[in-house]
Specification:
single chain, alpha/beta, 8-stranded parallel barrel, 3-stranded mixed β-sheet, 13 strands, 15% strand, binds methoxycarbonyl-substituted glucoimidazole
Amino acid sequence: MSKPIHFPPDFLWGSATSAYQIEGAPLADGAGHSIWTRFAATPGKIANGDTGDIACDHYHRWREDVALMRSLGLKAYRFSVSWSRILPQGTGAVNEAGIAFYEKLIDELLANGIEPMLTLYHWDLPAALDDRGGWLNPAIADWFADYARVLFERFDGRVCFWTTLNEPWVVTDGGYLHGPLAPGHRNLYEAPIASHNLLRAHGAAVKVYREIGKHRIGLVVNIEPKYPASDEPQDIAATRRADAYMNRQYLDPVFHGHYPAELKEIFGAAWPDWPREDFDLIGQKLDYIGINYYTRSVCRHEETNWPLKVAAVRQTQSTHMETGWEVFPQGLTDTLVEFRRRYGDLPVYVMENGSTFYDPPNAEDGQMHDPLRVDCLKKNLHALHAAIEQGVDLRGYMVWSLLDNLEWSLGFAKRFGIVHVNFETQQRTPKDSALLYAQVVASNGACL
Ligand SMILES: CO[C@H](O)c1c[n+]2c([nH]1)[C@H](O)[C@@H](O)[C@H](O)[C@H]2CO
């Protein structure tokens, strides 16, 4: 009989989504275009021609969705604000209808005892700012800080939990180096600049929050722990490069004031000499770190792979993600323990963790059975608890995702929701994984 599991008494159990993936109506009520409304309108960019034009219609069904969260007993809800609903041109005049939408959502969450956790940026940059260089223009740190200030002034106090950016690595690698995500660039020289400006913007927003905010602010990074495929020196070196590029490229400047040396090795002449004062801005003190964990990577040297010269060795038990993300719960424990070892005892929240599997059609009993996701969730929650037992100051967990939604360029086919969405009828149906998660929340993990 395994030892009963106990999470800390006030552990924050919740779920996560993002604006473009669930809201729909991206241009409603005065909102401006974003790089994702543009990308989605470009033939071939999103699988099956899917777009966020309707998605989960959350823009109209937000009250129903909060009631759904309440029915699951969720303590918190992590969502993002669409910058171009608030500032249609990215800067300048505030669109009060955009403010009103998020105000209604926040007040409904609070009325239902659910902590709103607001992400300022989850990838949907205003198109008007992209026209001015977007993340490649150093001025974006000021544009982002001004946008953040509007939301801080309107919502701080009702929102007590702020995140500046969701996953600067994905924004950079997907949008500027390899190109599968908006704005779809493939440029070795642009990627470091975009990445550095994302971190500068993060720092500038935190600085504004320290002037006017009274609660908590942090950053959310995706961490994919890297394990060498062999003890061959070139595989060890490849693993180090992969860890520096995906993981330490963001945490080292924020917590240690410099980039990992491997980045100059990877980017060569494309890696600028950054001004020292930038690291004072980037290194603003944070109240927490958010970590998104999905899988690990087993790395080997591969001379032909641009620009890292690293290849991932595919593993056996994988999810149905297009690159087959391995189910590896130990990686979650390792990630959290390693964060504490390398960066110290800052409070940690797992802000995304989930899996996509082909969900069989609902059974005769009308219930949406998702056994693979249930198994994955249980294993990851045990791994989470193992990290707490090893001393990690883990404060909360947001399952990705509340709803099946638009999986960016992969469209609606990749379902991550614990609640099934019929995109024809917009009917929501809790899957077995949602019923399990509700029990986990109600028992604070004791049912695991
Ligand atoms: C590299 O994987 C990242 O950790 C990651 C995975 N995911 C994410 N980031 C994004 O934050 C979500 O918008 C995605 O829907 C979700 C599922 O793909």
